[in-house]
Each structure stands twice: as structure tokens, then as C-alpha cells.
């Protein structure tokens, strides 16, 4: 009789554990990126020097969306009551855009020569590589073949490989281009992320938005421009198990 009396509480304790399941997911899609903050610019101008490899955009941290690539893997625990706890690792190649409206020429190394500004067109992209980790807490809505996972939480990013790349024309039809590495004053970023996936069986449609909190140019001497990452991801997800 005592065995049966003990069996009831043990089954009650085991039920929530049995209700939990671990899922492994993979995702891939488009990463849309831009910079926000008071010093992110939708337009800028190009400075041309006597060394073409050193031509540069005056303000390459663009506030216009640019398209890149986003890849990731996720471990997600589905608990009792459909509560979710997820850990996501990702890699992203991102780029923001700045439209170019003018170009100036100066040869400061050996001359006081100045020319322009000339009217110009084209655009510059600030390209970055990002390694991200995301810890999300949320809930699964629905059940069966169709369900929705909603998550929110902190994201940490290591940002490297800063590169400015642009092209266009000025003064009618003369071409210009920039292609140079940038020194990163802040390689780490802390972000807040909202994430949603609509599932049909094992296939999902994923969307997420990350709002950067750390200034990418906080270490710049003689000035304090403020630019912050904004990242929107759209893609597909698949449950591996």
C-alpha cells in the first residue's frame, strides 16, 4: 500500500520532466543591416587622394539598409506549458549603405591642390563579419503541424573584418571607387533581440530584429560620433530533431 501511496507523488514530479523536449534547429537567410544613432548618415561624400587605394568615404556608417547573409544553429528546450529556452549561435556577413552625392580631390602629401566638390553618384557599403550568440526566452503558440515560437533576450556579437567598398561616377562620367579596411574602435556589441518562427511541421519561416546598444566609434579621438547596429533577419529554419 505504501508503494502505491509513493507512486502518485513521483509521477507528479516526473510529468513536467517528461513534457520537456530538446530541439536542434538550423536557419539560413538574408541579413539586412544599417546603422542608427545621431551620426549614421543616409548620404555622404568621397575624399579622393593622390593614392587611389586610400580614397575614402567621409562617413561610411550608413543608415540605409544593405543585404547580406545570415546563418545559424539553435538548441531549444520546449518545457511544460510550451515555455521556451533557446541558445543560438550565428555567423553573419552584413553591410550597410550610404548614398554618395559629392566628391572632393586633395593631394595633401606634396601639394595644396584642391578640386571640387563635384557632383557624384553611387553608394558605399560598410561590410562586417559577425559572430553572434543569442539567449532567448519565450513561448510556443499552437500545436500540431502549425505553431509559432516567440522569443526575446540578449544578444552578444563579435564584429570583425570591417571593410568599406563603394563605386560610382563624378563630374559627369568619371568613375570613382573605394576599397579599404577600417580600424574598428569597438569590436564587441551588446544587443537586444526579438525572434519569431512560424513552423509547419519541420519547416519554419524565421524573422528577427537586433537593436545594438554599443557605439561602434566610441574610441575615436577628438570626436565622439555615435553609430549603433540595427540588424533584421529573414529566412528559413529547419528542425533537425
Automatic annotation (TrEMBL):
UniProt entry keywords in alphabetical sequence: Signal
Signal peptide coordinates: 1-19
Protein name as it appears in the record: Outer membrane protein beta-barrel domain-containing protein
Amino acid at each position: 500500500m505504501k508503494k502505491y501511496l509513493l507512486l502518485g507523488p513521483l509521477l507528479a514530479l516526473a510529468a513536467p520532466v517528461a513534457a520537456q523536449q530538446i530541439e536542434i534547429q538550423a536557419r539560413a537567410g538574408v541579413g539586412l543591416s544599417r546603422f542608427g544613432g545621431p551620426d549614421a548618415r543616409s548620404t555622404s561624400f568621397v575624399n579622393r587622394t593622390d593614392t587611389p587605394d586610400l580614397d575614402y568615404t567621409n562617413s561610411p556608417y550608413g543608415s540605409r539598409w544593405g543585404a547580406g547573409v545570415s546563418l545559424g544553429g539553435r538548441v531549444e528546450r520546449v518545457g511544460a506549458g510550451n515555455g521556451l529556452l533557446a541558445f543560438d549561435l550565428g555567423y553573419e556577413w552584413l553591410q550597410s549603405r550610404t548614398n554618395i552625392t559629392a566628391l572632393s580631390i586633395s593631394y595633401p602629401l606634396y601639394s595644396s591642390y584642391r578640386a571640387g566638390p563635384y557632383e557624384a553618384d553611387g553608394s558605399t557599403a560598410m561590410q562586417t563579419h559577425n559572430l553572434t550568440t543569442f539567449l532567448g526566452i519565450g513561448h510556443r503558440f499552437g500545436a500540431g503541424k502549425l505553431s509559432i515560437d516567440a522569443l526575446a533576450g540578449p544578444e552578444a556579437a563579435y564584429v570583425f573584418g570591417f571593410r568599406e567598398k563603394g563605386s560610382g561616377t563624378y563630374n559627369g562620367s568619371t568613375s570613382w571607387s573605394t576599397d579599404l579596411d577600417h580600424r574598428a574602435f569597438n569590436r564587441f556589441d551588446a544587443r537586444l533581440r526579438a525572434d519569431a518562427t512560424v513552423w509547419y511541421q519541420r519547416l519554419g519561416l524565421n524573422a528577427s530584429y537586433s537593436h545594438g546598444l554599443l557605439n561602434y566609434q566610441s574610441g575615436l579621438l577628438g570626436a565622439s560620433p555615435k553609430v549603433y547596429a540595427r540588424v533584421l533577419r529573414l529566412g528559413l529554419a529547419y528542425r533537425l530533431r
